[in-house]
Predict the structure.
Amino acid sequence: MKTTLLTGFFCLVSSWAAVAQSVAPAPTVGSPESLKVVLKNLRVPISPGIALLDKAPTNIERASTPHALGVTLLNGLQGKDFALAVAPYWLFNHPGLTYAKYRDATFANRVAQIVRDVDVSGAVVSATDSTSNAAVGLRTNLFRIARKDPLNATLRKKYEAKVDFWALEVAGMTAADPGFNAAKDSATHYGDKLQQVLVAEYNEPAFQVSLAGAYAYQYPDRDLRARKSERYGAWLTADWRPKRYFEALLVARWQHLPTAGTTAQGEAKSTADAVDLGFRGGFNIPLPGLQRDWYLSLEYLRRFADDKAVAGKRVAFVTEAEVTDGIYLTGTFGEDFGPKHPVVALLGINFGFATQSQQAR
Amino acid sequence: MKEVAESRVVTLPDDQPLSVTLRIGNVQRGGSIIRLQRNGVSTQLARANEITGVIVGTGSSLRGGVMQVITVVVDVNPDSNWTNVTHQLTAGNQVVIREDFHEEAPDDRLVRYTISYTIN
């Protein structure tokens, strides 16, 4: 029953990068210059093991049972490129975790939720004919407060009652009884509805702190032992959305990357470390009659790096509006990193070709 | 809808009340019906979404019959397709049976567990 929009997420990220790179000189892959991203891309990625790769896979398999995981891994080993995301906790049967217990707001349950939310992601992507990139990552939510949404709560209670009613009806019938198929269809229908409400409730918390880490490397000639160009990183995000139209985001990211840069003393160096600390406050303004939002935000990002060319701060005003399905008009205006504080003025169109990822069952 | 059917034999003392607790795990929802079939007659003993410590009779009143526990689980958990029903039968203070039954939900989200206990 589990579907994801991971591929769409990566398309959006990739297309944003494409817009930015079409205006600015394209940075060398793996250099600290390639760290030049807008603040929203510093948010804890859904699949950090995949986000750390230069080239995102076109499809990410999501396995929700041990059998599906086995099938996905076998298929992956036969192919060239492969990406997988899995929540280990949910691979297994949990007899004692009732619906009521899961929703219990006790401290013990909140701690257990950290384990339940752990997501492991990994990918192998061809970089050239003879070289591949591999990555693995881990992500979880350290703390979350659900949004108190009266409409959502009303819908949830309504669908819970419907599911309970139709489950009992089906339990009391046999296949020969008139109305059996209709009762089954109703149970399925309200199960769908309840799950949609639960997903919406989960995806839009009022407050959430997320943590992730990932490790990636390149290996030539399909020899996993011959690792080179290692990179690793960690993300921490605190996201506060008291209302749907307002969001405040605090982010911290550390990355270690291979580089062809130089130190402040002019010496050649093979790796670079960069720490980003940032804040963003933004508004979603509903566009009357269009059922779309206009997004406005102000962001501040401070970068600490051993390469002075990319260290510094960035202050930017960002705007984004969905002009039609999947097509966004975006703009960024402000001051960028670097010793000369260059002015940034970007305007572009962002194409998000969102498709659902496959799920192995 | 996936069907799971199992049968067990239970020996009960005469004078102790038999209580039944059913627990649906994996953050799923559902409902259960308990019936007693004896001498060709079917009697409904309980019908509820949550059955906790429900007394269905004594050893002497149930003996010779088949207690059928039917639970339909609806997969509503966005994170898992697993469904599980834990049965606990207690005679007085003694746990007679405690067992988990589990199955993955199919695309229509429904799993029906029919567990039959022959009472001795």
